[in-house]
Amino acid sequence: MSFFARFAQNRGALVGLLILIAIIGMAILAPFLYPESPWRMVQRPFLAPMEAEGFWLGTDTMGRDVAAGLMHGAWVSLLIGLVSTTVALLIGVPLGAVAGYYGGLVDDGLMRFTEFFQTIPNFALAIVLVAIMQPSVVSIVLAIAIVSWPPVARLVRAEFMSLRHREYVEAARLVGQTNGTIILRQILPNTLSPIIVLASLMVATAILLESALSFLGLGDPNVMSWGYMIGAARTVIRQAWWLSFFPGVAILLTVLALNLVGEGLDDALNPKLVRERS
Amino acid sequence: MNDTTPVLSIRDLTLALPEGADRDYAVEDVSYDVARGEIMCVVGESGSGKSMAANAVMGLLPKGVSASGGEVLFDGQDLLTLDEKQHRQLRGLRIGMIFQEPMTALNPLMRVGAQIAEVFEAHGKYNARERQERALALLDEVGIPQPERAIRAYPFQLSGGQRQRVMIAMALALEPELLIADEPTTALDVTTQAQILELIRNLQRRHGMAVMFITHDFGVVAEIATRVCVMRHGRIVELGTAGEVLDNPQHAYTRALLDAIPSNVVPQSRDAERPAPLLEVKHLHKVFRSRGGLFKPAREVRALDDISFTLAPGETVGIVGESGSGKSTLGRCVVRLEHPDSGSVMLSGIDYSSLKGDTLRRERHRVQMIFQDPYASLNPRHRVGYAIAQGPIANGVPRAQAMRRAEELLELVGLGAVAVDRFPHEFSGGQRQRIGIARALALDPELIVADEAVSALDVSIQAQVLELLDELKRKLSLSLLFITHDLRVAAQICDTIIVMQQGRIVEEGTAQEVFLNPREPYTRQLLDAIPGRAHEPAMA
Fold it and tell me: For chain A, how many structural domains are there in total?
């Protein structure tokens, strides 16, 4: 059975994948459907949804098209979510794996280093980092990655600590596999499930973190993001619900889709489930 | 005192499994009685459905399993029709239970006395002081040393045998008419098992209870049963008194099970001159340090205390001991999964215990291990072929060649080359152990250490795997260090047997000497504790 067929057996995962494709499609089509900058004021402000033709989602406080913002924002939000999670995994997984596998002094050293990051509140650290580096997409991605890798390291370390004494790991050591091979081929594949679940949640938190940064005015001033839209609409939430509602729904759907896809990936990668279903 | 009215009477019981299970019924058309004052042994291998009927009696059927026919009569009442609340009233009060794993069945954060008192409390009996007094009396009755101290102990401070005694005390608290014991001695050492069996028999006689005793071990059956019910694939294959079933089994399956028990007949050992040793263990020491508890002060465990022995090429040496004897630590020191504190392990002249880092990794192929747990010793994410080939690949053999070799090895251990592309979870325990053996052979090691390699298997499977090992030994002239808790299994396959106790070698000699003429009292004690030994002549 092909990988996709196994993945598709999980209905929820398929739905998630469709939503995700739709959002990516939005991001790709944005420059064609709304070639104008989403920052341009195109109509009178506070136009409610469905009120005027061509502005189905209404306009914001400055008369900018909400639909255009949503489409263009999809790109930035997804990019920030995926890239920062990848960077966080690239830091967290090797660190946790090495700490958990070797234990002892290596573990102590790496974990104290991790705790150094954990003692500072996530969001405060992110604000400081973005403020120092100047708000831009790169600095935001970096800041989010830097505040979100410690839980990954902790999780991977705990998994490695429980798996390194399994008999199959000892067997691998006995046949003379190197530590690197044991970490990569024996233990890491068995920690994938929790890592995938955590990663799909992290993409979600990254999108929300970016929203929060934009909300405080620390977003990249040149790009439209869902977070910025919600942030800008906060003062008028009672007069113009649609300004925060649509980007909010977009974030919700993305997060939901990512979680479903993560779950499906986990199922598809688990050899045990595959044969039982077929 | 054998009055014949049954306390429990199971009639045509059929339990349906949920859809998609490997068979339709957990048990099918099962009928048997358990009378007052008798011990009814339900025997079967894993998956035979032997525990299911007991679960139905207690109203503790697993999710998805439901009774689809028959009745379970207890004191004239059909237990299958009771609701949860009525079941709860019966459990403990009139039907007592003991489980296999006394550690998980007890609440780890509650003192033993409080747990026993809770049984009375659940049924609203006595006041607080009386409950404590009764708990003390019960602990005394089940033979726990120093009951006044044990009553204030937490479960983890007691040994496995003591915990099982506490479980029995709880089951007996309300003087039930029926006691259900589900594999109560399986997790225990032989000597402890013998004590617990003795205790159950005595208590049964004293209280005149009916006992339903579920086990996989025919030795235990011979020790304790009044009547026996042999089950297979959810059906009863044989039912009769212990004498009838054990001495004159009618069904082929019963005979096969009885034959699979390692017998007391020890194969003739070779009297050949011992050549220069392949493995030479000299003055090995290893101490584990553990933090103390309330009962035990901080202490050091001498896992290995001056262990020396030799193993000649082509020879099989058995290390026999109970849990905590240091036998596994010895095996792990030999394969270098554990580092000894002092002493040396010489392997054909090289000091194997002094190798380090990369040198050790390159030399590791010389000693391989067969692990105990067939479920934990194979990586669930790797196909069987790779699991076997990974050793040669790590040692520089080209992948294609290593995979071909893996196919050959799978043939050799009797699984067939088609197994290469399958995942471990598609195999049964015995098959997985064969894969483990193939993996150990893949590197053509000079020495194989088998750590309790057959203890986790059903008897009939155990016999097959032992046979395979024996055959491979002859075909490939393997040298084997065979670690086991079962003297009888060791006697079947080993040339030399070493008996260990608390980190020290107690006795050492040929299998025949140790098994038939033990010199040391401890060895004799181990032998006497083997269940069903008295029955042996008739069984063999």
Answer: 1
Q: Could you say which of B362, B371, B394 has the minimum Cβ distance to residue A167?
A: B371
- The pTM score is 0.79
The helices-and-strands tally (H runs, E runs) of chain B is: 21, 20
Q: pLDDT tens, B340-383?
A: 999 999 988 888 888 888 888 888 989 999 998 888 889 988 99
- Residue A56 maps to a domain: no
Q: Is the minimum CB–CB distance between B450 and chain A shorter than 8 Å?
A: no
**How many whole angstroms separate alpha carbon B239 and alpha carbon B220?**
17
Query: Which residue in this structure is represented by tokens 């016999």?
Result: B463
Residue A250 domain-assigned (yes or no): yes
CATH 3.30.2350.10 for domain B279-530, yes or no, is: no
Can you give the three-state secondary structure of B52-105, one letter per residue?
A: HHHHHHHCCCCCCCEEEEEEEEECCEEHHHCCHHHHHHHECCCEEEECCCHHHH
d(CA B452, CA B353): 22
State pLDDT tens for residues B207-255: 888 999 998 888 888 888 889 999 988 889 888 888 888 888 888 888 8
Chain centroid offset of residue B324 CA: 15
Angle between helix A66-102 and helix A226-233 axes, rounded to 10 deg: 120
Q: State the Cα–Cα distance between residues B468 and A30, nearest whole angstrom.
A: 68
**What's the complex ipTM?**
0.77
CATH number assigned to the domain comprising residue A86: 1.10.3720.10
Residues of B in contact with A166 (CB under 8 A): 376
Pick the closest to residue B307 from B483, B484, B504, B496 (CA basis): B504
Q: Which domain holds residue A84?
A: 3-37+62-277
Q: Look at residue A46 and tell me if it is in a domain.
A: no
